[in-house]
Write a structure and sequence with these properties.
Residues 139-336 form the Gfo/Idh/MocA-like oxidoreductase C-terminal domain. It holds the Pfam family GFO_IDH_MocA. This is Gfo/Idh/MocA family protein. Belongs to the Gfo/Idh/MocA family. By secondary structure, the chain is an alpha/beta fold. It has 2 domains: 3-121, 3-Layer(aba) Sandwich (Rossmann fold), CATH 3.40.50.720; 125-284 and 321-334, Dihydrodipicolinate Reductase, domain 2 (2-Layer Sandwich), CATH 3.30.360.10. It is built from 10 helices and 15 strands. The protein has helices at residues 12-22, 37-46, 57-64, 75-87, 102-115, 129-139, 162-165, 169-186, 289-303, 311-330; strands at residues 3-8, 27-33, 53-54, 68-71, 91-94, 119-121, 146-154, 190-198, 210-217, 222-228, 241-246, 249-253, 260-263, 276-279, 334-335. Strands 14-13-12-11-7-10-9-8-15 form a 9-stranded mixed beta sheet. The protein has a 6-stranded parallel beta sheet with strand order 3-2-1-4-5-6, with helices on both faces. Helix 1 links the parallel strand 1 (3-8) and strand 2. Helix 4 (75-87) runs parallel beside helix 5, helix 5 runs antiparallel to helix 10 and helix 8 crosses helix 10 (311-330). The longest helix is centred in the last third of the chain and has 20 residues, at 311-330. The chain is globular. It starts with a strand and ends in a 6-residue tail after the last strand. The structure holds nicotinamide-adenine-dinucleotide. Nicotinamide-adenine-dinucleotide (NAD) is lined by residues 8-14, 33-36, 39, 72-75, 77, 81, 95-96, 122, 124, 161-162, 173.
């Protein structure tokens, strides 16, 4: 079956999604949407296409009868584009974040339920062979139960464009990847956050591009995140540098190579002398990152199952992001249940 598909947001990410879509024989592109028609025309030219161009998702879906929206527009537009598509009968796969307010995120879920439309989010950083393999090792108990998890993220990219004008560029546009990875690795959902957000001397962002966050999880684990998007020197990987302290040992993961462990074989034996060092083995084969996440979303759509990154699950990553902003704004610990009302 071919999905008649509209792509909204014809910028740099739109280009990557288009390359993916054109390589699939189960996707038929039928229209482009962008608020700047020249961006959509440039997309047509880049790929040798002659797709009709619209300025709104609603119009594009109504006129083409498309069944699928791929949304790679800016964060502010994701929720309204997805709602317009689902209300017109189309399923949605969208870039992160699914919404920039909790009210919009909850509304998205409500519309997805009412219309029985599929709606899932790109979380490509869940799909590297290293993180999938680390997760399998954690689930197999290599370090016991993870209780204290830390991630450091320090990079200094110069994007220009919308990110440099955003109020919370790091938390809203990037940290959601690391937060989502923490949920994935810990295997539980967060219940509270305390965040200090700031913009140190030398930052070229208008909004706060650095943050320290402490999350408590429902299983008792604590996750601490240190991040900066205006860090010059000693870059971490884009996946972040992780330390996971478990009940019988620790994992260190630099985000690029397989994790390394120091752990005892039996919890009862746990002491410094019984620690055995080991290197993680890659258990994951095949596509990674964006391609893997799009493959998973399409397979879920076609089988009628819920995607791993379905909005009903992903809202917990959004809650980490929005809860962190709320905490920073009021300088207090925020219980994430406060956001789900
Ligand atoms: N998953 C990842 O690793 C990753 C990496 C980069 C960007 N992204 C996400 O992809 C999205 C797009 O980022 P980008 O770097 O391609 O930005 P971009 O600025 O290059 O492109 C965004 C495009 O959306 C268009 N647009 C704006 N409002 C719109 C609307 N209401 N409807 C349709 N189109 C609209 C803009 O005109 C522009 O052409 C963002 O949500 C960003 O967070 C994700």
């Amino acid at each position: 079956m071919k999905h008649r598909t509209v792509l909204a947001g014809c910028g740099s990410m739109g280009n990557r999604w288009m390359e993916y879509a054109l390589g699939r024989d189960d996707i038929e592109m039928v229209a482009l949407v962008d608020i700047f028609s020249e961006n959509a025309q440039a997309m047509n030219e880049r790929h040798g296409l002659q797709l009709p161009v619209y300025s709104s998702v609603a119009e594009a879906i109504e006129e083409t009868g498309a069944e699928l929206l791929l949304d790679t527009s800016i964060p502010d537009a994701h929720a309204s584009n997805a709602i317009a598509a689902m209300q017109r009968g189309a399923s949605v796969m969208m870039e992160k974040p699914m919404a920039v307010t909790m009210a919009d995120a909850l509304r998205l879920i409500e519309v997805s339920k009412q219309t029985s439309r599929f709606c899932a989010v790109m979380q490509n950083r869940r799909y590297t062979k290293e993180i999938r393999s680390l997760k399998l090792d954690l689930d197999a108990g290599v370090i016991g139960a993870p209780g204290f998890v830390t991630a450091n993220f320090f990079l200094g990219p110069r994007f220009g464009g919308f990110r440099e004008a955003m109020e919370h560029p790091l938390i809203l546009d990037m940290a959601i990847h690391t937060f989502d990875a923490a949920r994935y690795l810990i295997g539980a959902n967060p219940i509270s956050v305390y965040c200090h957000e700031f913009n140190p001397e030398g930052s070229w962002y208008m909004g706060n591009a650095s943050a320290i966050c402490v999350f408590e999880f429902s299983n008792g684990a604590v996750f601490s995140y240190n991040g900066s998007w205006s860090a010059l020197g000693h870059d971490t990987s884009w996946e972040g540098e992780w330390r996971i302290q478990g009940s019988k040992g620790s994992a260190i993961w630099d985000g690029n190579s397989p994790a390394v462990y120091q752990a005892t074989s039996e919890e009862a034996d746990a002491n410094v002398d019984s620690l055995i060092p080991s290197k993680g083995v890659i258990h994951w084969q095949g596509a990674e990152r964006r391609e893997a996440c799009l493959n998973e979303m399409l397979a879920a759509l076609q089988s009628g199952k819920r995607s791993e990154t379905d909005i009903r699950d992903n809202i917990h990553s959004v809650a980490m992001m929005l809860g962190a902003i709320e905490s920073a704004k009021h300088q207090r610990k925020v219980m994430l249940s406060e956001l789900f009302v």
